[in-house]
Each structure stands twice: as structure tokens, then as C-alpha cells.
Structure prediction request, 84 residues.
Amino acid sequence: MARKAAHPYGPSTVTVKGRDIRLRTLGFVLLAGLAIWFIAANTESVTIRLWIPTVTLPLWSVLTVTILVGMALGLLAARRSSRR
Prediction:
């Protein structure tokens, strides 16, 4: 099977205070900051129906679990696609 050829140049970077930072890292930090701000701003309790039981939880805990599950699924999908 043919392997993907590497680009002759490195990943896109931006220089911040004399250090090269990858744009992907910068985007990740920005999105993580926005997610933390969104979670911190939503602290009221919500009622969630889980098929049969109904639970009341703080919204920040529901959002935290949701983002962690999404990150885990994203990592699994990325790992599977990199093996192909």
C-alpha cells in the first residue's frame, strides 16, 4: 500500500513573543477557553430524562461530561482514521 508523502514544509505556525506556536494548538486553546467560559456561565440546575430515570443536576456538570465524551470520541475517530 502506498504511504502518504510528507510535505516538504512544516505545519503552519504563528510567532508569539518569540516562540513559534502551531495554529492547531492555538485553535485548540481558544476553543478550550470558550468551552470553559460557557460551562462556568451556566450553573443552574436542569432536569434530564435518561430513558427511564429523571435526574436533576447542575448544568455545568452535564456540559463537562458532554465535552469529555465528545473529546474521547473525537480522539478515537482520529486514531482510527490515522491507522488507515
Notes: The chain is about 50% helix and 20% strand. The helical segments are 23-41, 59-83. Strands lie at 13-16, 19-22, 45-49, 54-58. Residues 59-83 form the longest helix (25 residues).
